[in-house]
């Protein structure tokens, strides 16, 4: 297949109309209408074969995840997603791969009404770069620098599933498992392959949270960015970390806590809330059904500390994911 056939295939399978797309795929550049009173929020992420997904990952899951990790950044800003562009680097013009990839991508794009507005195709090692764009009302973006001593620290959903899923996929173990075990393991791997960006939660947090970040590299590492940017310290109560029942059953005790504190790829939102907004946050997020848990507090000082029930500090071996470590 030639480059232009691939572009036509992508444009056809990803077609979705939004009336703020004045010119979409097909010209030298897209032309987009930004609503008045809104600010544009833009984020780019790259996924590379063998680094961000393992060999053997379904192409449809790669398409879903590529978009999910980008939408998660918009969620962490409290933005409403609108547009995405897609730069694909492929080892060869593999139509089957592109079809499956785009179908996974579109399954998530349709959920959030995100239109594909352009991109690029080049030849090389499989890699995917997305730029997503969305809106927030003027000056209402959720930033990393607003946490203050006395704020509560919260997280949506559950933590640790994706890291446990990655361990399962890497180990390829599962021979003598019962059906229930297989099902739980599949749930953990599903969280790794098809994360849920917390778009609605992020929008609810506008005007309520003092700082917000999405958990991509690991809770400790990501809250470390909030602490540093805000000039505060964060204490996490390790006993309060929310775990799915699959994680609870499949990974025991200390190991589970380590995955929850250090494991990446969950794409939950971690955020801080001033005392006067805590009731509103817990009430409004409860309505969404994604779950929200208070996991700690903001205090004076610097850095992030995880505490066991007896108050002793938990020290992680290795910490979060760092590409250049
Ligand atoms: P140019 O040579 O001007 O960069 P291209 O041939 O790369 O143009 O792209 C032609 C049109 O197809 C543009 O509108 C571009 O945004 C779109 N396009 C190219 N690759 C992709 C892709 N992977 N996904 C979506 N649109 C794409
Ligand atoms: Mg081009």
End-to-end CA span: 39 Å
Shape: globular
- Number of H- or I-type helical stretches: 10
- How is the largest sheet built, in terms of strand order? 8-10-7-11-9-12-13
Mean pLDDT: 94
Distinct compounds present: adenosine-5'-diphosphate, magnesium ion
Give the amount of beta strand, in percent: 15-25%
Number of strands: 13
- The structure class reads alpha+beta
Note poorly predicted spans: none
Report the sheet with the most strands, covering strand number, pairing sense and barrel closure: 7 strands, mixed
Give the oligomer, counting copies of the same chain as homo and different chains as hetero.
single chain
Helical content stands at 25-40%
Q: List SSEs in N-to-C order.
A: HEEEHEHEEEHHHEHEHHEHEEE
Description:
The chain is α+β, with helices and mostly antiparallel strands and 325 residues long. 37% of the residues lie in helices and 25% in strands. It has ten helices and 13 strands. A seven-stranded mixed sheet has the order 8-10-7-11-9-12-13. The protein binds adenosine-5'-diphosphate and magnesium ion. Adenosine-5'-diphosphate is lined by residues 7, 10, 25-28, 86, 88, 116, 118-121. Residues 7, 10, 25-28, 86, 88, 116, 118-121 line the site of adenosine-5'-diphosphate (ADP).
List its traits.
37% helix, binds magnesium ion, 325 residues, 7-stranded mixed β-sheet, single chain, 13 strands, 4-stranded mixed β-sheet, binds adenosine-5'-diphosphate, alpha+beta
């Amino acid at each position: 297949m030639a480059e232009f056939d691939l572009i036509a295939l992508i444009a056809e399978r990803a077609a979705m109309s939004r009336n703020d797309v004045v010119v979409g795929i097909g010209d030298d550049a897209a032309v987009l209408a930004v609503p008045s009173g809104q600010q544009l929020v833009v984020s780019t992420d790259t996924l590379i074969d063998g680094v961000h997904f393992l060999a053997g990952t379904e192409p449809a899951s790669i398409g879903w995840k590529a978009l999910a990790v980008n939408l998660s950044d918009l969620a962490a800003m409290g933005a409403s997603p609108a547009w995405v562009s897609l730069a694909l680097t492929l080892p060869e013009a593999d139509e089957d791969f592109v079809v499956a990839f785009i179908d996974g991508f579109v399954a998530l794009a349709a959920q959030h009404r995100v239109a594909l507005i352009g991109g690029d195709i080049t030849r090389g090692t499989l890699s995917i770069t997305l730029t997503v764009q969305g809106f927030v009302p003027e000056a209402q973006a959720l930033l990393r620098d607003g946490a203050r001593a006395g704020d509560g620290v919260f997280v949506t959903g559950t933590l640790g599933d994706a890291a446990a899923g990655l361990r399962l996929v890497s180990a390829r173990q599962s021979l003598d498992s019962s059906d229930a075990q297989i099902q739980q393991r599949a749930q953990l791997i599903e969280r790794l392959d098809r994360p849920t960006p917390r778009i609605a939660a992020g929008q609810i947090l506008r005007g309520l949270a003092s700082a917000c970040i999405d958990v991509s590299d690991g809770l400790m590492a990501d809250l470390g960015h909030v602490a540093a940017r805000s000039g505060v310290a964060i204490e996490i109560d390790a006993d309060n970390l929310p775990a799915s029942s699959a994680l609870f059953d499949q990974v025991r005790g200390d190991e589970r806590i380590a995955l929850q504190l250090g494991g990446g790829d969950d794409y939950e939102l971690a955020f801080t809330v001033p005392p006067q907004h805590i009731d509103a946050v817990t009430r409004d997020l409860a309505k969404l059904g994604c779950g929200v848990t208070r996991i700690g507090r903001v205090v004076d000082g610097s850095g992030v500390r995880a505490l066991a029930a007896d108050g002793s500090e938990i020290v992680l071996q290795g910490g979060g994911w760092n590409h250049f470590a």
